[in-house]
Design the sequence.
């Protein structure tokens, strides 16, 4: 079975641009969560979606938005990129919420220049 | 105070040693606890959930102390392959946000 897949794996953007990151969860998993991991830090929770609805939101500005599609895949959008948005963006898939085992994708490494 | 705190290490231990990591959390309403392992430049992978009664998986033992608000991870008979960063994860009830610690780096040396 395919695991969690994220695309692209690497991305370079310029300050002020917009970016869209994509995640496909494990088949049968209905929950997708997004995290930002800056080098040397633990992942920071951005969003959780379950059954296409936002169920949780971390302390991130409104420049960050996400959605979940009927097939449970998800997109994370970041507008007006700042240098500080450079990080590894991780998607986690689980059957329900994080009370159940979550599986992470390999991440998208975003560099903002 | 950070919501979830871990000693960043690094912990440098010889093969075969026993090593323990602690993690403290500030939200007394936290309900779910996990340890994840993250190898360098890789994604985190679930190591084990942590239950109130404590639980063991092979060489790994996890404990939860709700009164003192900390969880621990004990690794016995350390292997070179155990070298990684160990992340403590805490979740409040329902769909509340999940909080990761900054991770504790373990290096097992021959």
Sequence:
């Amino acid at each position: 079975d395919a695991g969690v897949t994220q695309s692209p794996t690497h991305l370079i953007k310029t300050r002020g641009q917009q970016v869209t990151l994509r995640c496909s969860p494990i088949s049968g998993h209905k929950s997708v969560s997004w995290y930002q991991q800056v080098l040397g830090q633990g992942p920071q929770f951005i969003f959780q979606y379950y059954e296409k609805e936002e169920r949780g939101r971390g302390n991130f500005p409104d420049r960050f938005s996400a959605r979940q599609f009927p097939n449970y895949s998800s997109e994370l959008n970041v507008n007006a990129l700042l240098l500080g948005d450079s990080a590894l963006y991780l998607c986690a898939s689980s059957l329900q919420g994080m009370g159940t085992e979550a599986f992470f994708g390999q991440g998208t490494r975003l560099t903002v220049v | 105070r950070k919501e979830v705190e871990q000693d960043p290490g690094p912990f440098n231990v010889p093969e075969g040693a026993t090593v323990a990591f602690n993690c403290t959390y500030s939200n007394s309403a936290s309900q779910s606890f996990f340890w994840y392992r993250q190898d360098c430049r890789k994604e985190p992978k679930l190591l084990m959930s942590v239950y109130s009664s404590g639980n063991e998986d092979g060489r790994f033992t996890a404990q939860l102390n709700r009164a003192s608000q900390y969880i621990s991870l004990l690794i016995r008979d350390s292997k070179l392959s155990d070298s990684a960063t160990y992340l403590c994860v805490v979740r409040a009830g329902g769909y509340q946000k999940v909080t990761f610690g900054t991770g504790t780096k373990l290096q097992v040396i021959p």
Q: What stands out?
A: Chain A touches chain B at residues 33, 35, 40-45, 48, 50, 55-58, 90, 97-99, 101-107 (CB under 8 Å). Chain A has a mean pLDDT of 93. The CA atoms of residues 19 and 78 of chain A lie 5 Å apart. The radius of gyration of chain A is 13 Å.
